[in-house]
Amino acid sequence: CRDELVKAPNIDQLASHSLLFQNAFAQQAVCAPSRVSFLTGRRPDTTRLYDFNSYWRVHAGNFSTIPQYFKENGYVTMSVGKVFHPGISSNHTDDSPYSWSFPPYHPSSEKYENTKTCRGPDGELHANLLCPVDVLDVPEGTLPDKQSTEQAIQLLEKMKTSASPFFLAVGYHKPHIPFRYPKEFQKLYPLENITLAPDPEVPDGLPPVAYNPWMDIRQREDVQALNISVPYGPIPVDFQRKIRQSYFASVSYLDTQVGRLLSALDDLQLANSTIIAFTSDHGFLMRTNT
């Protein structure tokens, strides 16, 4: 389910001739445990991972992963971008060497995602939540998801001539925060067309433990400037629209990367012999009251 405003023709085309699951549930509303859950096929109650702070093979059990199963059955398994969550939850190795035939690829420009690369109205560079950029103007002149697509296509070209079957996982960053994307995608979503969340109010009687005050977002320079009270202070309506605009633009940017990857499969005549699974981890909360 997605907002009707969102333009994602490549994902739509893939969905149109795929088995489409419209009632999906996240096992845990946090990145690391949800990824470990679907990559091992086990619930967080079994992996004993509810946050980012343990490695299931040590903490809970030496469970097999999907890529590990393929690897142990003659497949070349390859990881590009964010597949396992980085850090201790994947043993600081993306679960290597168990899951992958060779070391996973991470884009070199990842390290700039949260740095001052967002040019503000003042002409200066900031570390913002909303970050439409001129790609030629950012460090290395590229973005992580663009690099991941290029690497994935190179691997597909290599596997085209290989006798071995392959499992390729491509993990894109967007539309994760910060919303750092090529600025031309912002033009797809004029602010006057952006709707607000239908029910932005904090429910009466909500226990504090059930609420996420989004401290990470509050640390971004553009959000800091709003001086929003903690924990329930509302975001100004005009900034709510800008958040949703940038989220939608980030999705459309991602869609172009998916399109490039699907086109490469066709060009290399691999599409008819390849099973494609398109999924996310736990999705993203787009309530915009805080």
Structural commentary:
By secondary structure, the chain is of the alpha/beta class. 30% of the residues lie in helices and 8% in strands. It has one domain: Alkaline Phosphatase, subunit A. The protein contains nine helices and six strands, in the order αααααββββαββααα. A hairpin with a 5-residue loop joins strand 2 and strand 3. Helix 6 runs parallel beside helix 9. The C terminus is likely disordered. Keywords: Calcium, Hydrolase, Metal-binding, Signal. Belongs to the sulfatase family. This is Sulfatase N-terminal domain-containing protein. GO terms for molecular function: iduronate-2-sulfatase activity; metal ion binding.
Which descriptors apply to this entry?
290 residues, alpha/beta, Alkaline Phosphatase, subunit A, two-stranded parallel sheet, two-stranded antiparallel ribbon, 9 helices, 30% helix, disordered C terminus
The strand line-up of the biggest sheet is 1-5
Class computed from helices, strands and strand pairing: alpha/beta
Distance between the termini: 22 Å
Number of strands: 6
Q: What is the gyration radius calculated from CA atoms?
A: 20 Å
| Helix-strand string | HHHHHEEEEHEEHHH
Give the averaged pLDDT, no decimals: 93
Number of helices: 9
User: Which fold name corresponds to the CATH topology?
Assistant: Alkaline Phosphatase, subunit A
Unreliable parts:
286-290
Number of domains: 1
